[in-house]
Specification:
The protein is mostly helical. The chain binds beta-D-glucopyranose. One of its GO terms (cellular component) is membrane. This is Major facilitator superfamily (MFS) profile domain-containing protein.
């Protein structure tokens, strides 16, 4: 497919298509998503394992086991220390993402990935050997630092090396890796939990070392992105690399010139963080905050983190709970493939709006089903198998809706709309906001469940309506627009054109 030529919506069209080199480069970089996914998926299963609870959180274990059927089931896992185990990681990732913006700008995307992988490896080791709660928490913090670095560098790296007309599909391999990581974690939790008498949780947590090693070794062999090389003054090397990833017969002069021009004007911006407040960057700043905020407020992570806890709450047995989490995890991964094959054809807006509608309908269905059966006091009746099956199917369709919309687009859209001069800073904001709300939901979910009961899903459904309207009104289509030409979409948008004037295609220098 090398040499494919498609007219871009931004007005420019660079030659060069999907070469083997660019595919494998993105494939390996996507390993960064595995470490994030593994962590997202592992804690829910581990926190529902009795030996783990008995050892580190005996009060939760006792509460769960002392419950009488007449007690309020919604509250049996309500413990702030237990949720701190899950959520601490995301606080650390937040801090790391802010620091990583400086590292990615100064030392490149690749080194940031390697550094992130190493931190993750140490975290996995500490968790495997954990004998006290503090070892667990410190291990989680290290994992969090690793994830902050990876999520900062990998999505922008992938968008930078991908040819513009395949950028959506290639970038979404990051999300695919996240979902595979979640699924692998769910599967290992399920398998390890079958072996009674061993510390299943130890193996579940320790296996995080595998994705860590994959990204460390993978990133070691990755080329640096041409944009990043130019950003660091290595123009010759950048041109050679661009030629290699676009194909040896392709004329890369035009693209290279534009990358150099973008880098030249980006040098006028010495303080990317302060510059972000300029009117000119209002659309990028808005989306760097709104997209991750809304992504988390879909409520998806209630399922990712706590599916086993949720299934146990509504009366499933321990094994059935882990099994159901496994089924939803598989749906997540398979449905992500759909977005990979459709995003560059139907565009970002279509997927966002379809996914939002699907999630909303499922949330209403799930709320009704749990509400009818459990009422407000959470007293369980007999849960017939067919009823349980409909709940699991409803959750799977909801997960699929997220998996082909807000999941991958939550990483793709920010990574492609930031101009080079503020790219690292904007991506840090994107990751930090994502992590703040991942943290918040992980931390307060069990309390929310205890107080809001089945209404929890309606709470998130309201946000899904709001975010769909927001996308409909404010997000321009970015499909098929080269990254360095992205300013055109803002200039043509009925709302954003007030902020981005045609003369603004060059970034204002700090002095202005
Ligand atoms: C989100 C995570 C979520 C995952 C689920 C990612 O895009 O950032 O918070 O757990 O998708 O697949």
């Amino acid at each position: 497919m090398a040499g494919a030529f498609i007219e871009s919506k931004g007005g420019k069209a660079y030659p060069g298509g999907l070469t083997r080199r660019v595919f494998f480069t993105c494939f390996v970089a996507a390993f960064g998503g595995l470490i994030f996914g593994y962590d997202l998926g592992i804690s829910g299963g581990v926190t529902s394992m009795d030996p783990f609870l008995k050892k580190f959180f005996p009060e939760v274990y006792e509460k769960e086991h002392d419950m009488k059927p007449s007690d309020n089931q919604y509250c049996k896992f309500d413990s702030q220390t237990l949720t701190l185990f899950t959520s601490s990681l995301y606080l650390a990732a937040l801090v790391a993402s802010l620091v990583a913006s400086v590292v990615t700008r100064a030392f490149g995307r690749r080194l940031t990935m390697i550094f992130g992988g190493l931190l993750f490896l140490f975290g996995a080791g500490l968790n495997f050997f954990a004998a006290h709660v503090w070892m667990l928490i410190v291990g989680r913090l290290l994992l969090g630092f690793g994830i902050g670095c990876a999520n900062q560098s990998v999505p922008i790296y992938m968008s930078e090396v991908a040819p513009y007309n395949y950028r959506g599909a290639l970038n979404m391999m990051f999300q695919l890796a996240i979902t595979i990581g979640i699924f692998a974690a769910n599967l290992l939790n399920y398998l390890f939990a079958q072996y009674k008498g061993v510390d299943a949780w130890r193996y579940s947590l320790g296996c995080a070392a595998v994705p860590a090693l994959m990204i460390i070794f993978g990133a070691f062999f990755l080329p640096e992105s041409p944009s990043s090389l130019i950003e660091r003054g290595l123009d010759e090397k950048a041109k050679t690399e661009l030629q290699k990833i676009r194909g040896s017969k392709v004329d890369v002069d035009d693209e290279f010139k534009d990358l150099v021009a973008a880098s030249e004007s980006s040098k006028a911006v010495k303080h990317p963080w302060a510059s972000l407040l300029k009117r000119h960057y209002r659309p990028q700043l808005t989306f760097a905050i709104a997209i991750p905020f809304f992504q988390q407020l879909t409520g998806m992570n209630v399922i990712t983190f706590y599916a086993p806890v949720l299934f146990k709450t509504i009366g499933f047995g321990a094994t059935a709970s882990l099994m159901s989490a496994l089924i939803t995890g598989a749906c997540n991964a398979v449905a992500t493939l759909v977005s990979i094959f459709t995003v560059d054809k139907f565009g970002r807006r279509t997927l966002f709006l379809e996914g939002g509608t699907q999630m909303f309908l499922c949330q209403v269905l799930i709320t009704s089903l749990i509400g009818i059966k459990f009422g407000v006091d959470g007293t369980p009746g007999e849960l017939p198998k067919w009823y349980a099956t409909i709940i699991v199917v409803g959750i799977c369709v909801y997960v699929a809706g997220f998996a082909w919309s807000w999941g991958p687009l939550g990483w793709l859209v920010p990574s492609e709309i930031f101009p080079l001069e503020v790219r690292s800073a904007c991506q840090s904001i994107n990751v930090a906001v994502n992590m703040i709300f991942t943290f918040a939901i992980a931390q307060i979910f069990t309390t929310m469940l205890c107080h809001m009961k089945f209404g929890l899903f309606i709470f998130f459904a309201c946000f899904v309506v709001g975010m769909s309207i927001f996308i409909y009104k404010f997000l321009p289509e970015t499909k098929g627009v080269p990254i360095e030409e992205m300013h055109v979409v803002w200039q043509n948008h009925p709302y954003w054109r007030k902020f981005v004037k045609p003369t603004d295609s060059k970034p204002p220098s700090d002095e202005v």
